Amino acid sequence: MTIAQMDPSVALADLQASKPERVTIVLLSGDMDRAMAAFIIATGAAAMGMQVTVFFTFWGLNAIRRKGAASSAKDWLRRMFGLLNKGGADSLPLSRFHFGGLGTTMMKKVMKQNRMPGVPELMETALELGVRFIACTTTMGLMGITKDTLIEGIDQFAGVTTYLAEAKQGSVNLFI
Q1: How far is it, in rounded angstroms, from Cα 78 to Cα 85?
Q2: Whose CB has fewer CB within 10 Å in the chain, the N or C terminal residue?
């Protein structure tokens, strides 16, 4: 068969079979609205049959921290980071109009009225759909975050080279 005789839909199906579509998302932000965007995209892509990986780094690690889990870092500076940098998917602030928590409370109320899931529910859905969660070990070390302070379901603890290997295979790579 020559190229001129190929059916485009068959060629696309062959390409998808030989190279499944992959999506990688770097979640750098610890803001509620940005984390929601990351998980909405991740769950949407996973529902479309795409392989999805979310790489959590810096403040994005707060989305996968257990609420109230204290840092077990050995030095006082990293322990202080852990105290000041509260985690928990349900405790993330808005990126704008936070107003000491009032804006976030109002946003959560509007979301509930519109039956929109929050970050914890979106994360749970992502895990059920097979989205891979990778926690950045370099940032964990810098910020005094230990494995025991993160939620269950983290697929891998790795550095940037692991993310780059995933992104290299991806057809969609997002940075949030």
Answers
A1: 10
A2: N
b/e 94-132 (16+ beta carbons within 10 angstroms → b): beeebeeeebbeebbeeeeeeeebbbbebbbbbbebebb
Among 124, 82, 95, which Cα is nearest to 32's? 95
- Report residue 68 as tokens: 């109230």
Distances (CA, A) of 121 to 3, 63, 139, 143: 47, 12, 25, 26
Helix (H, G, I), strand (E, B) or coil at 175: strand
Residues near 166 by Cβ (< 8 Å), separated by ≥ 6?
Answer: 22, 24, 53, 55, 134
Coarse DSSP helix, strand, coil percentages of the chain, rounded to the nearest 5 percent: 55, 15, 30
3-class SS at 53?
strand
pLDDT at 33 over 90: yes
Strand partners, 26: 55, 175
Span 70-122, pLDDT tens digits: 777 778 888 777 777 777 888 888 888 888 888 888 888 988 999 999 999 99
**pLDDT class for 134, splitting at 50, 70, 90?**
very high
